[in-house]
Amino acid sequence: MLSMLLALQYMTLVGGNVSNGMGLRNRSCNSVGLSAPPISTLITPEPVRHSRIPELPLDGSFLFEFLLFLYLLVALFVQYINIYRTVWWYPYSHPAASTSLNFHLMDYHLAIFITVMLARRLVWTIVSEVSQSSGGSLLRYIVLIAARLSLLTMCGWVLCWTLVNLCRNHSVLNLLFLGYPFGVYVPLCCFHQEGGKSQASGSDCEYPADHQQADLAESPLFRPRDFFFLLRENIREQFSSPPHMPTHTCPQHIHSDTPELIRAEVEELKSDFNRRIKEVLFNSLFSAYYVAFLPLCFVKSTQYYDMRWSCEHLIMVWINAFVMLMSQLLPPSYCDLLHRSAAHLGRWQKLEHGSYSNTPQHVWSESTVWPQGVLVRHSRCLYKAVGSYNVALPSDVSHARFYFLFHKPLRILNLLIGIESSVVLYQLYSLLRSERWNHTLSLGLILLCNYYVLFKLLRDRIVLGKAYAYPLSSNSSGLKSQ
Description:
mainly alpha
């Protein structure tokens, strides 16, 4: 009988629907439920076990930038075909054109300018890898420096030469389109600051303390950055070593500092994730703008082209560039890192007033790891713990959003597969219904690039699906039971 009463009290404490009905209805809304020892001394949350995923092959920086540049060149060639195509198959008695494209209408300076702008990431990758290479003789070092300066000088000279010729042949309005993306990007970086770096994480998260102190001392977080300061910082980041990949360390023992360390780690990961998403969005829009939109701005008013097909091509280029950059900047290992952190963060579900009136309710404490099912009060609202571990701030929407996005490790990968599969299926449908030679050629070239991206995504999905589906047991060799 005594064991049954203890079991009944335990079920009531974790938020079940069973209640003994004795001594619970006299409590007030601000009480801590049962006048018993703290919940952390009565209930120990079950350890969070993580699946161990295999190391999947990931394209190197140089290879990825080269493939992305090659894809953008193919897309630019396709757009020029859509704009300057001719009816070259007409009989000689009625010659419409002697070539398949109207080459005399093309602006070669614009094409060279776009090519150099699209190659900027590839050039920076080459320069960064050369700058980071250490060792060797003095002669080798001098040769590398000379090659780097020669490459940058050549790119700068080509840009200046094309800009001078474009200024001679086009109006000021057309020239404003050349630098429009930079005009949007610079104010965005100058006046929008992430506060994530100020949230220094503890030693359990394995972030270098000296690097954090330098960031706290140097970064002006609450005032706009000067343009030259921003330019200097960006150039220094390009030539310095790549940023340290955040790491996650599961707490082996729960103590009073564990919740704060987990929340600090989440803040750092949020800042890093937002930075990556901003880079993906800007570079994908930048690529689509210069590949598919800018050539349309320099078309003569007397020339006809298929506007619907060109706009459709613009959207496809943006989606494909977005998926390629997402798959590279958010690899499976990084998504697994976010998933592990979200599993330790937990989530709170807001409840209506008056519900669970006979269930013990506790005052939320920032130094407590709350188990699943517990009811707490915070800011005059009632919340229920959803995750196995719950250290998130109940009223913080960003914590709830972080848990929603990453508590399922394959959510981002499934989203990318769905987007890329929809694009491929639509292009196959358009290819079957196409009646013009330029449409058939364009779709065939773009599909070849999309097949490669979709293959890599499906390969990762199959491998990771089997890894995460492996049964979670304490004796399993494929798990970390921390």
